[in-house]
Structure formats: C-alpha cells, structure tokens
Amino acid sequence: MKISTKGRYALRMLIDLAEHQGEGYIALKDIxxxxxxxxxxxxxxxxxxxxxxxxxxxxxxxxxxxLAGEPRDYSVxxxxxxxxxxxxPIACLDCNPVGCERSSSCxxxxxxxxxxxxxxxxxxxxxxxxLLEKERSGGEYNYVI
Length: 145
What we know:
Elements: H1 5-19, H2 28-35, H3 39-51, E1 55-58, E2 64-67, H4 76-84, H5 109-124, H6 128-137
Antiparallel strand pairs: 1-2
Helix pairs in contact: 1-2, 1-3, 1-4, 1-6
C-alpha cells in the first residue's frame, strides 16, 4: 500500500488546522504557506474533507476552514479512507466477501487479511490529537502494534 500525496497533504492540512484550532477560520493560503503545499492542491483536497463533515467552511472576508470536531475524534484511518478510498493492501480485499474467484484456494489470502487488519487497527488508533501532541513534544512516535 502506498499513500498518495493527496492523503499525506490532507493529514498535514488537518494537523495544521488542529494546531491553530483556537484561532477561528484559517485561510488556505496560510495553511499552504506553513505546510509548503500549493494552495491549488489544497483546493482539490478540501471538497473531500468538507463533504465528509470533517471541516467547517466560512466564505468571504475572514473566511477559511476549521475542524468541525475535536482532533481526538479524527482517526488517521478515516482521513486516509476519504483520500485514498481504501486501506486494503490488495484489491480483492476491497470487496466483502472477498472479490476473487480464487479466494477459496488462495494460499496468501489469510496473510493479506492479517496485514489489512493490522494496518486498519493501527491507523484507527492514531488520531490528529496524537500527531499534534507528538509534534508539540518534539518526541518520537511510540505507537505499538
């Protein structure tokens, strides 16, 4: 599984909004400048986050974006599912039941399912709050599987 630029930038944008949560609505140009991301690229990510209810938007003068909820309520898994579509390491796991005619005799299916479970559980356990606290402390990640 490879996380795209869209997924990585969405995380950076949401962490930035979490970090500046007490400042009201934050303009995309400010996030773009702080994160070193093009404003145009952020404009492509915002509709996904906005339609999911993760963001609140305010148009006009003093407009911008802010988190709709608390940083602890946003799992990395939920954010990546929005931007990437799936966390599954292989395409056949995107279907339930498994969408492959060979699934009943596949020697590797259980391994892929186990990997998927570990990925999903790990990313469900990491929130924007966790990432924000790590960034503030300057410490190392201590996420155990």
